[in-house]
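Page 47, continued from p. 46.
Same chain as before, 125 aa.
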Amino acid sequence: MSDTDYDYDIRTDVKCLPLTMIDVDAIRAGAPDSWFNQPLARINDCVLRLGVIEGEFHWHKHDREDELFYVVAGKLYVDIEDGPSVELSPNQGYLVPKGVVHRTRALERTAMLMIEGATVTATGD
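Result:
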């Protein structure tokens, strides 16, 4: 499936250039939808993204990239297919290795930072 097959606001433009401040709270406050994903900065071959979510993402995997989730506000659940579910509170993170089928979900509006390869397809491979 392509990014357009889902009702998510997933952006591809990098919001902040080098040598500029990244104000996560301001960007989070302006997030328009219940599922918002914005690349904040490019770091070498990786990208730092802000996700503001409420609800459930679909099951997916990334064949070539690991994905780190770090909660800023709210509570995030990371479900692993045939594995454990992890509950993350603010200032907690979780690394999903490449090739692992997973989904994220939030029962309330939740903000998280994600670090992943710049070539990642946000909705999975």
